[in-house]
Specification:
The protein is built from 15 helices and 20 strands. Helix content is about 40%, strand content about 20%. β10, α8 and β11 form a beta-alpha-beta unit. It starts with 6 loop residues before the first strand and ends with a strand. It is α/β, with parallel strands linked by helices.
Length: about 450
Amino acid sequence: MKAHDGLYIDGAWRAAESRDVIEVVNPVDEQVVGRVPAGGALDVDTAVRAARAALPAWAATPPAERAARLAALRDVLAARKDEIAETVTAELGSPLQFSRTVHAGVPIAVVDSYAELAATHPFEEKVGNSTVHQEPVGVVGAITPWNYPLHQIVAKAAPALAAGCTVVLKPAENTPLTAQLFAEAVDEAGFPAGVFNLVTGLGPIAGQALAEHPGVDLVSFTGSTAVGRQIGAVAGAAVKKVALELGGKSANVILPSADLARAVNVGVANVMSNSGQTCSAWTRMLVHADQYEEAVELAATAAAKYGERIGPVVSARQQARVRGYIEKGIAEGARLVAGGPESPREQGYFVSPTVFADVTAEMTIAQEEIFGPVLSILRYEDEDDALRIANGTVYGLAGAVWAGDEAEAVAFARRMETGQVDINGGRFNPRAPFGGYKQSGVGRELGAHGLAEYLQTKSLQF
């Protein structure tokens, strides 16, 4: 793992205008593992100009050729899978096996899906006496978070490149080394200069400059709802297209007919995955009053098993934030049945896997996104009550429903105000659309719906 001391712009690594650097800290031992440039507005401008210059030729490149470049990118990422996993583990603190299977493995599958879509998507169709063309929207400013560093990059860059757009990426400052690896892979895969550009830097400086730049046609952002509002306001002033994947407070609804033990155990695993740093995590478990205490006992037992299995959260700031929410839950009267605010280790940004019982819908821990390994268990009286609680937040990103009869679960899921619902533990599908209702965002990622975000439509009448 070697950090570049430059930015990847117009097909080459070049020095940033600023001499400022960002130190990358390993959350496990709190040691600096790399330093990258803190690019600024001038660097963003250079990158956007490179992307605009490369746009006409890349947009005109036949889809089959774009597909071939994406297939080459997939192969490079697959060949460097172990290096990617080790890098994610170093800067995010994720256990190595999880980094291999999820942080490295899932993005490879996503790139593969867009290599196929670039070759097969109908970019042109006949509608009566019209020919309808789908064309690239233009230059994409991609701003990505740290929690799934490579997946979040790929979920934006791969469909944008498949569509014929050019890209300027500003990755999270906590995990820029993974972004540098991706830039290396793009270069090795043979993409033309300027088609993909990387500017590492701070959100309020480089990120804001990218969102505001008049040469950017679409801003794709994943992160907090608060920052998403700011980006939406900036883009709205310029009548610029946005794609926003924001916060979540997803409900895991266990209906009385479900296999309770399986639903609880899978639900706890979902929340503890990636140390709880998953926007779609099922952080609210809803259980019928008759089964409530049994579910609480099962969840507490399951959570205790994760004490030595999950990694830290990403930073000291995030650790303090999560511990603050745990203290808030206790202060508001929730019953702590596992974990707590005390750090389980003397070194590193670790948070104890935590479970709260007797949580009511209005409590802070049931309404706000914590982004750590904290589960709230809520009681409901009947299905209408469960639906009221499930839909009772400003978010609507994901969720789950469990029932003995699949049709019963599907009927409930259809009434949930959320973008994606897993039925009885349904598997993640990298080709299914992902995105939210309400304040969880605008637009969709992954699959054909993700590709559509980077296309605009023109009709020719004959």
